[in-house]
Amino acid sequence: MSTMMQMPVSWLGIIFLPLILAGLFVFKRIRPFLIKLVPLGALPALLASLFMHPGAGIKIPWLFFESMFVLDATGKMFLFFTSVLWLLAGMYSVCYVSDSSRRIRYFVCFLLAMSGNLGLILAQDVFSFYFLFALMSFSSFGLVVHEKSADAAYAGKIYLILVVIGEAFVFLGLLLLAHSTDTIYIHEAVKLLSSQPQCGTVMGLMFFGFGIKAGALPLHVWLPLAHPVAPTPASAVLSGAMIKAGLLGWVRFLPLGASGFQDWGYTIILLGIAAAIYGALVGLTQNKIKSVLAYSSISQMGMMTILVGVGLLNPAIWKKSWMVLMFYAVHHGLAKGALFLSVGTAVSQMKSNGLRLLRDMAVIWPAVAVVGLPFTSGEMAKGGLKMVLKKSSAVLPHVELILILVSVSAVTTALIMARFLWLTWRVKQETGETSRDVPGLMLPWMILVLLVFLFPFWITFLNVVPSDGMGLIIKADLKNMWPFGLAMGIFIAARLLRLTNPLRIPQGDVLWGYAKCVNGLRVWIIGIIKPLQKGRENLEGGLGILSENLLRPSKYIDSMVEFFSSWKVFGILIFSLCIILMMSLGW
Amino acid sequence: MASLLPLIIFMASFITGIIIFPMPNAAHRLRTFVNLFNAVLKIVLVSLLMWGVYHGNTYEFNFPLFLGFNIILNADALSLFFVILSAFLWLLTTIYAIGYLKDTPNQSRFFGFFSLCVSATTGIALSGNLFTLLIFYEFLTISTYPLVVHKGTKESLAAGRIYLVYTLIGGAVLLFSMVWLSSLAGPAEFTERGILSGLSDEYYPQLRAIFALLIVGFGVKAAFVPFHGWLPKAMVAPAPVSALLHAVAVVKAGAFGIIRVVYDIYGIEFCHTIGVLQGLAVIAAFTIVYGSLRALAQDDLKLRLAYSTVSQVSYIALGVAISSPLATIGGIVHLIHQGIMKITLFFCAGNLAEGVGVKRISQMDGIGRAMPITMTAFTIAALGMIGVPPMAGFISKWYLGMGALKAQQSWVIVILLISSLLNAAYFLPIINAVWFKEPDKEGAFDLSQKWFQVKKYLLWPPVITAVLVVLMGLFAGLPFSPLSWAKVITFREYGY
């Protein structure tokens, strides 16, 4: 990092502004005014992502053990979509949550999580990264349990358990990383890591630790519970931005682009494909719009997991796969954010037909983008994914099969998006377009949809992608339509045959299995502990009676005797100790 | 003058105690003035001492008593570490206690013994040999007893008796082992890297036995399992007493004694040679896990905190028992970190009891709205206990973990992990209940009238300590942070 440009400390407003805003909520009088400022917390980050050159950074000697914050190319991409989502979700929240009696708590948690999420993108040393990651994870608990319902409380519990487990994994990983490489700077440490004996352990810990946040199988169980149960704008940042913090953890802490990790890469690719297909299939069985979207997130994160795997499998083309990965992250972040925001707005009342059409388009476009139809960012992202897989055919075993599975996942993605649109349409029928149509909700949503629409045409705007796009171009190839066509066919056939959802897979799918195991374990442990506890109680009771008798030989002797008797015990003790001492000196 | 400074620091709180005893209960203002004046004076004196030691001056007060047993008070890096902790937390706890005990009887007795108790802690910190340490150790036992039984109820008298039985037996064991040790090695003056390395190996079995006895003796106060029984019982004491007992006075005195034994009598290298560290580590590890498990089962807030102390104080012993400088740093710095975090928690528990009469965790649903400041402080300290960054507890845990890796004792990491998870399991539900659950009924928490009268006395101390919990973590790398001091101490002990 010798080329690092020194930036003024004020640059840290990216992290501090949301923190300061959160702190100002202490003052009761200015709270109504402060709430309106909440979205601005993400503004410095957005400006930095747009106008700062990659490589700018700062070392802060007084924070932890010389913390370092650098905006690198990866950071620029992440900071862009993350700050956009927080800004727009903030605007949305101002309107959406403002009549809740718990709004102050919501906004404080919102700002703290924002600060953590934006900050960890810049953090380049293990302490500040871990701190900001924890800040984000723990404060977004407040967003998950915002709605007062049994579902929310349960989701919150599961969320918290997995956060704690994830923190423990990451803590161990960081400890081993710093120990084996003797540096606290992530970039250097990971570079040195590949030659260390602990490398495999660290990679495993990091993969699962951050995998919890990224919704990787089989640790995804909290995600379909927690993402949907939060208020709509919070779901948008959870599923669009915070889920990517897990991905960023992988990018930062796995030796992507270093050689010698083929097996790791292959395994991760397989896990990714499994998540991509499994997530979408389980999502199809869901009846709540937001659960469908949450499962779609698991599925899409699976696609990004494949790219992470390619980074380990085929380091030679890491530059290309990195590019595709970054693009995919931005694409999914924006699109999924827009989809979640549409849940609260899609049924709004519109006066003119033109506006109504615009609204319907705004619901459909991000869904179509996730599917990957021509002219969308999804087409580019998926095209890029296939390109890097094909380029890796020399090192990737069963490449044809994997490509087929990727196509299958395209079909399942199209199906799940069709299900989303179907459910949205049905809700609209049921509620009869009477919901809120507040500009405060419509505006951030529309801006986000517009960004989803525009950003593929404007790919070089962050100065990160070279002007040739590195293969990321809009092909507008009609051949890319086939998964969509097939999915439509299946969907219409299912509707015509009036096939109803045969499986009612509960949110969190395999969670019930885990819960069963944990419960069994608990019963087993209690079975062991109970007799032990009895024993301890008996022992304590016995000791109590014994000491009672020692200290108080008889109830009828007055307190003077009681006093002396305790000293008598003490005297005997000292005496016997002295005897032992004398014996010991004679050794 | 230079040699008298340690004595003056000790005397400052001792004389305060003597002055306060004869005051009538109604002399609230006078007592408050004397208390606070001395607390501040003590901080000034300790700062003076720190400044002097930092510039290389030595301060030693030596008073020959008999048979080569001397009273020695001196200031080295380690004793300063403990003195500054006790002086600072004494000030805060005094402020807190003034508010807490306002308009209750027997305050002069309370504050008198309170000062004596702190002077005893100061004496322990400044002791230059085992003999002096032992005297102040017993003095501490005697001066805390009236605080534990302050309420005078049947329950507190019973708890006080148990406390006395435990600690007096512990003291007797210590006395015995000190005499034994002196018979082998002469007066046990605290010396960096120990005084025993010159002894030939035929004494090793005896030295091992003495070590075990010393650990038992100090372990009673440090609440090692199975000598921890008195600690949960002593929870009947008023909140400021519990706070002080857990953060600086009694429990810490035990832990401090263990540090002195391992580093300044035996010496870490020598401990390693005679192979006693593994045993200490195992006891500490067992205590850590056992304390956390018991804490999990408590519904009484103060009891849960008490078992948490049992667990957390053994971090110090664990750090000491791993022969790696990094682990030593982690253990020693936890002396301060745990103190600040735990005192915050006890202040908050006291505020709950005073403000709204809540003592059980099951009554705490939604209490964050009634007492936002107190519960924010509580949340910060509890997260620190779990080891969430950037709180101070994270720094301790990081160094302990790094030390364990350096010493190739990976089982310690497993203990740390289990303990963190258990800590999360017993603190996070409280935080969840406090902020995110609704109270059982509308208007469940009416802040009592007394609360408003004494609010500032009871609010500021936990706020200050909670802020410190964050600052000590965020700025751990700066000179003069507890961590940097712990590093200085450790490097001297290891002879770098």
Characterization of the model:
The complex is a heterodimer of chains A (587) and B (496). Chain A folds into four domains: 1-239, no CATH class; 256-502, no CATH class; 510-552; 555-587. Helices cover 71% and strands 2% of the residues of chain A. Chain A has 21 helices and three strands. In chain A, strands 1-2-3 form a three-stranded mixed beta sheet. In chain A, a hairpin with a 6-residue loop joins strand 2 (56-60) and strand 3 (67-71). The longest helix of chain A has 41 residues, at 511-551. Chain A is globular. Chain B is an all-alpha fold and 496 residues long. Chain B is built from 19 helices and two strands. Chain B has a two-stranded antiparallel sheet with strand order 1-2. The two termini of chain B are 31 Å apart. The model of chain B has no long low-confidence stretch (mean pLDDT 89). The interface between A and B is large, with 43 and 42 residues.
